[in-house]
Write a structure and sequence with these properties.
By secondary structure, the protein is of the alpha/beta class. 27% of the residues lie in helices and 21% in strands. It has a ten-stranded mixed sheet with strand order 1-9-10-8-2-7-3-4-5-6, with helices on both faces.
């Protein structure tokens, strides 16, 4: 993996240009290609200081070159080994992983696990051993017998609206989940949802979609950062984009924060302007 942005070396001087190449020399775009450790990835994707006292919602998504956010209903065919390492790193840094019910069903979500590689870093930040999984659902059409609800290291949250089924909410609680009301209708209000999580001390927030949920966060203006993997693949077809739902009146502007590359995959980070 190599860093393309931000640039860490100044443009080579004329002397450097004609000098004989060295095996450990770096180019002007960043460090020479090497296998990044999890510590290096964690440093590169660290939450900003304001996340410790306020809140910070980042999304992690993958897209093909022609804009597909999934293939055959799943994101895995667009991914790579390096992408999954970054996926794991982002989880290892988060207080909570916010995910839509459809993504839980299609991707076969399981409880987040504690990982030794992030234990010291999480302890120093005052975090628990693993992030909480928070499932966003209006219908509560979920299988509450799955390990995500019955065997998590920390109780799974169910984010829903006051108008959702009281019977299904009770079933979720019997399975061991904690129900959080974050809307007046059946669904959630995005602003209320992220605020409710922050009030529980879950300030470093990560959403893994799906597209409809990400679209809600974008439209509400609560998404602070997008971690987007650009996969060197093309799928054609009619696959959904990474964000769905109604369009916003004015496009939301983000600024590039960093770009990493490995095996043709671009791992980008954009922050809201």
């Amino acid at each position: 993996m190599r860093r393309l942005l931000p640039v860490t070396d100044m443009t080579a001087t004329a002397h450097d240009t004609v000098a004989a190449p060295s095996a450990d020399r770096t180019d002007h775009a960043g460090p020479a290609d090497h296998d990044w450790s999890l510590d290096e990835l964690a440093d590169a994707y660290a939450y900003p200081p304001e996340a410790a006292t306020g809140r910070w919602l980042r999304a992690n998504m993958v897209s093909s070159l022609d804009g597909a956010g999934q293939h055959d209903g799943r994101s895995q065919p667009l991914s790579s080994e390096a992408d999954m390492r970054i996926f794991g790193t982002l989880r290892g840094l988060a207080d909570v992983v916010v995910v839509g019910a459809e993504t839980v069903r299609s991707e076969g979500y399981r409880p987040a696990r504690a990982r030794d590689a992030f234990a010291a870093r999480r302890a120093a930040a005052g975090q628990g051993p693993a992030p909480v999984i928070a499932v966003v659902t209006a219908s509560l059409d979920l299988d509450f017998s799955l390990p995500l609800f019955t065997e998590p290291l920390v109780p799974t949250l169910v984010l829903t609206g006051a108008g959702s089924s009281a019977e299904r909410r009770a079933e979720a609680e019997r399975a061991g989940a904690e129900v959080v009301i974050a809307g007046d209708d059946r669904g959630i209000d995005p602003e209320r949802a992220v605020t409710a999580l922050a009030e529980r001390g879950l300030r470093r927030q990560l959403t893994e979609g799906g597209p409809r949920l990400l679209g809600q966060f974008v439209a509400a203006g609560v998404l602070d950062e997008l971690c987007l993997t650009l996969s060197p693949t093309m799928t054609a077809g009619a696959a959904q984009r990474i964000a769905g739902g109604p369009s916003v009146a004015v496009p939301k502007r983000f600024a590039v924060a960093s770009v990493l590359e490995q095996d043709g995959f671009l791992f980008t980070r954009y922050r809201r302007i």
